[in-house]
Amino acid sequence: MNFVFDFQMLNLGIALLGFIIINILLGSINGILERKFDKEKFINGIIKGGIVAISFVGVYFIGTLIPDVMIDINGQEITILMAVNLIVVSGLAWYAKEVLIKLASFVKAKFGG
Asked: What confidence tens digit (pLDDT) does each residue in 41-81 have?
């Protein structure tokens, strides 16, 4: 068994983690500015983001140990690594959307839109 380090997956993982962090920061800044900052929600967001990141790393590593194991998702057979990749890309798209919505909200507030 050969372990192959996938730089594309590393880049996707770093990008996902970056969007998670930015999303938490923008939400926190918005809460502070509106005087509605919720420390518990902030801490829970950090914990959730950390658990998501660690879980992806763990599942990806396990997938590299058993690269030929196939799973069925809605009638489509894929490897665990392919499934992790799909989930990371989906999470990346979702968090990117959330960050862009928050950024647009800040721009709108800044320019009085």
From this structure: 889 988 988 888 888 888 888 888 998 999 998 899 999 88
Model pTM score? 0.77
Number of Cβ within a 10 Å radius of residue 103:
12
Alpha carbon dihedral 52, 54, 57, 63, in 10-degree steps, equals -80
CB atoms within 10 A of CB 51: 10
End-to-end CA distance of the chain: 58
Residue type, 42: F
Is the Cβ–Cβ distance between 99 and 23 less than 8 Å? Answer: yes
The first and second tokens of residue 37, run together, are: 């900052």
CA distance 17 to 88: 10
